[in-house]
Amino acid sequence: MIERTRPRAVSAICETWRAQGRRIAFVPTMGALHAGHLSLVRRARRDADRVVTSIFVNPLQFGPREDFARYPRALARDRALLRAHGVDLLFRPAVGDIYPAGDATRVQVTGLDQPLCGRSRPGHFTGVATVVLKLLEIVRPHVLWLGQKDAQQAAIVERMVRDLRLGVRVRRAPIVRDRDGLALSSRNAYLSPAERAQALGLWRGLQAARAAVRRRTRSAAVLRRVVKAVWRSHPGLRPDYMEVVDPRTLEPAAAIRGRVLIAVAGYVGRTRLIDNLLVAPPAARRRRGAA
Ligand code: AMP
User: Which of 22, 24, 51, 234 sees the fewest Cβ atoms within 10 Å?
Assistant: First the structure.
């Protein structure tokens, strides 16, 4: 595995690969890797000749009171994992190479950055879109792999790629969960065992919502009540939101007709966690299955 920190060096290697006709897949991360990240790498490995992964804890996507300084960092372990998973190039830029002195350009995907996490994390998605555009410009991959875990982030990046005609294929990988159902996240490292038990309320709420949809509940308001009832039995979970939205536009869906995204977020202690589930009414599932 090649490892580089300078953008110019990464661009040169990727340019050579492209000239050789190699198909490049890119998996951007913030490190502290877990099986969710590695599932993206595995999928990238399957549909490309070269896999590039970046590890960059992007200061621009953290709010002033958020966890940038204490975000978990585990470089030696990450490096070994990426090597073992067949990554060809690890890009580990310095903050100053991504945001050189005087850097003033920001990318805002308007509208999609407002609901869900946008409400409690103002500026977060501008940080995300800006860094992803910069990384894409350096690597110029054929395929970009993102996780469904960050569904709003994926929707925003997909819209940016479309709007700016970036010519990269964006692919999403499903959420990887721990055995108890908790969605894997680098931030799970912050949780004590007691906090972890509370954090599970997010997933249990989603499961209850899915069960309700299977029992033919079609009202988002009813689903909200179902989820909130589950959350009440997890008093250590401080809910941020529970929304039923269209998976692409993120607009609220009052009724569950086709596929909807149920997105949740909450705090356990100082740790903010998110999770989501795509659900469809049984009839819609049957139609899709029959097609
Ligand atoms: P992060 O390091 O948190 O910025 O995540 C890097 C990429 O991994 C993003 O595309 C995430 O959506 C994805 N990812 C994070 N956690 C998971 C998970 N549990 N399952 C699938 N993908 C994930």
Answer: 22
